[in-house]
Amino acid sequence: MRRAWFVLAAIAALVLYPVTAQADAGSSVATYHGLTSAQRSNLRDIARDTWKFYSVAVDPVTHLPLDNVTFAGGSATPTGYGRYTSASNVGVYLWAVVAANDLGLISRAQARDRVRATLTEVSHLQRDHGFLYQWYDTTTGHVLKNPGDVDCTTETTPTFDNCYFISNVDNGWYASGLIVTRQALPELRGLVDGLVAPMNFGLFYDGRAQTHCNVNPAIQGNQPTGQMFGGYYVGLPVDQGDNWTHYYHNGAFYSDPRISAYLGLGLHQMPGDVWWRSWRELPPPAPFADCASTDPDFSWQGQWPMAGSWQTYTDPQSGQKFPVWEGHYTYPGSNLTFVPTFAGGMFEGLMANQVVPETSWGPNSFGLADVRTAQVQIKYSNEQLHLPVWGMSPSSTADDTGGYGGFGVEGLTFPYFGTGADASHPNQGLSQCHGCATEDVVTPHASFIALDVVPQQAYANIVALRSHFPGVYGATGFFDAVNPTTGAVGHRQLVLDQSMIMAALDNALNDRGLQRHFADDPVSRAARTYLGVENMFAG
What we know:
Elements: H1 37-52, E1 68-70, E2 80-82, E3 84-85, H2 87-102, H3 108-122, E4 127-128, E5 131-132, E6 135-137, E7 143-144, E8 165-167, H4 168-184, H5 189-196, E9 231-233, H6 258-266, H7 273-277, E10 303-304, E11 307-314, E12 321-330, E13 337-338, H8 346-350, H9 358-361, H10 366-383, E14 395-396, E15 404-405, E16 427-428, H11 444-449, H12 455-468, E17 473-474, E18 477-478, E19 481-482, E20 489-490, E21 492-494, H13 495-509, H14 513-519, H15 525-533
Antiparallel strand pairs: 1-2, 1-21, 3-6, 4-5, 6-7, 8-9, 10-16, 11-12, 12-13, 14-15, 17-18, 19-20
C-alpha cells in the first residue's frame, strides 16, 4: 500500500489453538447512533455521487479498478487515468460494491455481476501463495515494477524490487474485501473461497526465536521477532545470506497493517504472539536486567519521556504470558491521552475500523484509540493550526500534478528535542515520527472514516469542507485534497480513498453494515477475542 511506511511482523509456523466460538457475531456489533434524518439524507446524496466515480474508475475489459482518475481544473469529465492497480485497490473496491448494494445504489444482481467479473480476472492474475503482487497494469493484467515502469515479464531473475514483492498490508485489505464479499454475496462464496484458500498470512510473520526483551540480539541485525514483516520477496527468503537487510518489521501496531494480524489470527495462520509482541507505542527497554543495553533507544519519538507501565497479558489461545508496554501520549496542556500513529495520518488509525468493529469490540483498546485519534486531529487543527477544517491523512497533493504525499497531525508546533529529550526537555509531538509528514493538506476521506467515532463533529466537518471550499466537490463526489490555507484543490480521486468513503457511509447509514458483514464471518472471532482482552490505556 502506497501509504504503508511500517508493517508488523510475521511467521511461518501455523498455530492452531482454537479461538472461542462467538455465536451470531454480527449482532455483537453495537447499533450506530449519532446522525439526524436530515444529516443522513445529505450523506446519502454524497454516497450517490461518490458511487458515480466507479463508472469511470474500472477497466471495461479486465474489470480491475484503476488506481485513480484525474479531473484537472475540476473538469466534469476525466482528463487522466491511473491505469494500474494493487491488492489494496482490489480489496477496497469490493468494499465499495458491497456498500453500494447495501445502500440501494445498485441491485444485488448488479453487485454480483461486478464482483464476479473482477474476481474472475483476479483469479487469472499472477499471484504467489494466493497473494497479489505490488502493482498490475489494468489493461493487460500484467505485473508492473512500478506505475508507468517496466512490465515484469522482462525480469526473469528474482531481485529486490516490486516485480517480486508481496505487500503484507495491501494483501490484508485485499483479503478483507474477500471476507466481506462472501458474507454480503454468499452466492459467490465458491469463487471467493477459491481465492482465499491458498493464502497463508503466516508467510508475513517472523517466527524466529523471541526473548523477553523488545528485540533478540542473537538474530542478525538485533531484530524484533514475533512481529510481522512488511512483506516478502518471492524467491528471496529472509533467512538466506544477507537478504534480511532488505526486509523490515512494522513494530508500530496502531497502523493500517494490523488488518493482516486480524486475518492471520482469524485464519489460524499466526500465533497470538503477533498481537503482544507488536508495539502500541515504541517502548522503553523491557523491564529485565539483560535488556537495556540491546533494546532500541526510542527517545527520539514524538513524546518522550512517555507515561505508561509494563503490563502482563495471558494469550487467550496459548496461555503464554507476555510483557506489554501500555503507554500513552498526552496532548500538551490537557488530560487528553491517546495512542499515536507513526506519522499522524487519520487512515493509519481509523481505516481498519471501517471493516473490523473496533469501536464495538475494543472499547478499552483500539476502539478507544480510534476515538482519541479523531479528537487529537480536531483539537490540534482548531487550536494550534487555526484551520477552518480538519482531516489530515496521506492523499493526493492539493494541485493537479498527480502527486501524492504523506500528510498528518504530527504536532510540529510543539517542542521537539530529538534524542536529546529528557524530563527537563521533553518531546511533545503528536505522532511517533517527527518530520515524516506535513500539515498543509486536508483530505475528505479522513472526515468520513471518523463518522463512526465522532459522528457530529465529522459530519460538521464534511459540511464545512463544501462550504469553505466549493471546488473540492464535483459530479463524482469529493476530490482528494485541499490546502485549507490557500484553498487549492487536487482534482484527483483515488479508488482507495473513495472506497473508504463508501465504506464509511455504509457503516453510518446502514447501521455499521460493512462491519457487520465482517463480523458475520468466522475469521472475525479472533479480532473480537483480542480486542476485548486488552486495556491499552492501563498504563
